[in-house]
Specification:
The chain is built from two helices and four strands; from the N terminus they run E-H-E-E-H-E. By secondary structure, it is of the alpha+beta class. The protein has one domain: Alpha-Beta Plaits, CATH 3.30.70. A two-stranded antiparallel ribbon has the order 1-4. The longest helix has 5 residues. It binds iron/sulfur cluster (2 copies). One iron/sulfur cluster binds next to helix 1.
């Protein structure tokens, strides 16, 4: 099953990946990252298709997509 991993040491919580994902897979987490942001995380992992749109739009190169 495709999945993403967010590098919480890079994510600045800009939410671009949340807007880009066609399947509403990503939201901001409740916890704080080492940078002091609420990092992006998968909330509907079963809906991820591995399309990589989230990774393409992330300005901080924080998302890896695994297929
Ligand atoms: S790979 Fe595609 S479907 Fe999966 S979280 Fe990223 S944008 Fe959404
Ligand atoms: S686009 Fe990148 S920096 Fe912005 S919220 Fe998503 S993972 Fe974090």
């Amino acid at each position: 099953m495709p999945r993403i991993e967010v590098d919480e040491k890079r994510c600045k919580a800009c939410e671009l990946c949340i807007v880009a994902c066609p399947y509403e897979v990503i939201e901001l987490a409740n916890h704080f990252s080492p940078l002091g942001f609420h990092p992006a995380c998968m909330v509907k992992p079963e809906a991820c298709t591995g399309c990589m749109l989230c990774a393409f739009v992330c300005p901080d190169v924080a998302i890896e997509v695994y297929k």
